[in-house]
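Please check what follows.
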Amino acid sequence: MNLLSLATTLGSAFAVMLITVAIPNPSTVAASTYAVRRGTRAAAVVLGAVLCLDTAVFFVLVHGFHPLVTALGAARYLKPLAGTLLTVVGLVMAVRVWRVGSIPQLERMTAEVEDDGGGAHGPFAAGLLVPAANPGFWIWWTTVGTSFIHAVRPWGNLGLGLLLLAFLGGAGVWYVALLWALSRGRQLLTERTRRFAVMVLGLAMVAFGVFLLWRSVAAFAL
């Protein structure tokens, strides 16, 4: 087993997770809303709850979903499925931002989160419920997340532990930056910068998606 391959996989997992959470999403919108209404500490609780949910889902996939997919003989299709998802989503994001300057679906989700962001739920419950109510969260984990789990399986528990740290590290880097900005009463990105960032991140997702598809073709050719 090649350690360079493991390092590449972990680095890719870190980068893909960072890109995923850096794109404006309901979880970060909820954290921003709580920061305005209840302070930065409440926002930190929201994001901490999101990381707890990520960790729980990771263990469920490792011990339940992934073994089932492997037993059904479908594990080899995880990587091309993840590559296709990243490529399509990245293209849609980049094209929509370039053409209309925004993502209508994202704006609709943002409005829904802001309506309930400081309402009936406490910050920890919001950090669990907001991502859990987002279909994209589950699609990402059962395709992209599971494909990385499959990739590190040959390294056993060590590989899985390092992968979890890579996922949490990628998300944590962005969350720390977001909390730093919120604690100073400012936005992490201006509207113009956000549109540019979404386009760049969309293209980066396309690049990762194409890379996974290329690896998939190479694996099927063996």
The chain has a mean pLDDT of 82. The chain has nine helices and no strands.
